[in-house]
Specification:
Blueprint lengths: L5 E6 L24 H6 L4 H4 L1 E6 L10 H16 L5 E5 L5 H11 L6 E4 L12 H12 L10 E4 L2 E4 L4 E2 L8 E2 L6 E4 L2 E4 L24 E5 L7 H4 L7 E6 L7 H12 L3 E6 L14 H4 L2 E2 L5 H12 L6 H10 L1
Parallel strand pairs: 1-2, 1-3, 3-4, 4-5, 11-12, 12-13, 13-14
Antiparallel strand pairs: 5-6, 6-9, 7-8, 9-10
Bound molecules: D-glutamic acid.
């Protein structure tokens, strides 16, 4: 038995690695300038929680992350988890796309060891920064046995969220993350307290292993509004493998856009109706005859998570549309 868990902290940049010109700069600052060692240097308390090993994996804002970044992060986290000396992994990350990377890891890592993705809304230099506390709490969660087998977690603002549900819902406040069904638990005085689990399959329960994925299909998102021109959809045809349509309300499609989306499906593009509302489900064969048109609907996945799931569902052997549809109700 070890006296403390062995935790690897991987740095990728973001506000948690940012620095402002003054303490008053909570939202204007240079992003991704501090190394992970510099971020941890002002958090000596973290060493009482765990034996820490660090690695600077990337150093950039998460708005820049593309599929290659996802694969790179996933494979490195997987390497770490395979090491018998590692009990858990913390990944520091810009908050903008944390929910996408975390969901990708949640669906592709093959381990029950805790993986916690964490960022901050204010750089360490700002007054009342959340950087040190969020990182401290992420290490607490990653090192605690109660976190095993829960899939990938996102810790922010004293809350522990499942990667499946969490979404950044505010561009500015410390209370920036929410899950439509609430967090899984809280971090209280350096201890995770869990109140629920996610019922959807993840990590060791999915068919996707990051170690076997070398590339991902191209999936794009079209954001709906009343005056959206058909050309916005046509532009993607011949240039993408899947299209998530972030429709109004229950995934509604304006009459003048139906033809272009039907054409996309006929041309072999996987069309997924989602909702731009931010929560709720899209009902199959409800607002649109999806079965007739060869379209797929999300369950409750927001468009950016639907994109991640569709890429994975389409990876590997070609799949029937029914199999792709089923993935949205399983994960
Ligand atoms: N550049 C943004 C990002 O890396 C900053 C947002 C943040 O980290 O809070 O996601």
């Amino acid at each position: 038995m070890r006296d403390k868990p062995n935790i690897v902290v991987l740095g990728t940049g973001g506000t948690i690695a940012g620095r402002g010109a003054s303490h008053a700069n909570t939202a204007a600052y240079a992003c991704s300038v501090l190394t992970i060692d510099e971020v941890l240097a002002v958090l000596p308390q973290a060493h009482a929680l765990a034996n820490l090993r660090t690695e600077q994996l990337l150093q950039t804002g998460s708005e820049n992350f593309n599929n290659e970044h996802l694969l790179l992060i996933g494979k490195r986290v997987s390497d770490m988890l395979e090491d018998a000396d590692v009990d858990g992994v913390v990944l520091t990350h810009g908050t903008d796309t944390i929910e996408e990377t975390a969901y990708f890891l949640h669906l592709t890592l093959k381990s029950v060891k805790p993986v916690v993705v964490v960022g901050s809304m204010r750089p360490p230099s700002a007054m009342s920064s959340d950087a040190s506390l969020n990182l401290y709490e992420a290490i607490c969660v990653a090192g605690h046995p109660a976190s095993r087998g829960r899939g990938v977690l996102v810790v922010s603002n004293d809350e522990i969220h499942t990667a499946r549900d969490v979404v950044k819902t505010n561009s500015f406040k410390l209370e920036a993350f929410g899950s439509p069904y609430g967090p899984l638990g809280y971090v209280v005085e350096g201890q995770p307290r869990y109140y629920r689990t996610t019922s959807r399959d993840h990590t060791v329960m999915t068919p996707w292993s990051i170690d076997r994925i070398e590339s991902l299909p191209k999936v794009d998102i079209v954001y709906a509004y009343g005056a959206l021109d058909e050309q916005a959809i046509v532009t993607f045809l011949g240039n993408t493998d899947g299209l998530v349509y972030a429709g109004t309300g229950n995934g509604n499609v304006a009459e003048h856009l139906v033809g272009a989306l039907r054409r996309a499906a006929r041309d072999g593009v996987q069309v997924v109706r989602a909702s731009r509302t931010g929560s709720g489900v899209v009902v199959r064969d409800g607002a649109q005859p999806d079965s007739d048109y060869g379209w797929i609907v999300v369950d409750d996945q927001v468009p950016q998570k639907a994109r991640i799931l569709l890429m994975l569902a389409m990876s590997g052997e070609p799949k029937e549309r029914d199999a792709l549809q089923a993935a949205f109700h399983r994960y």
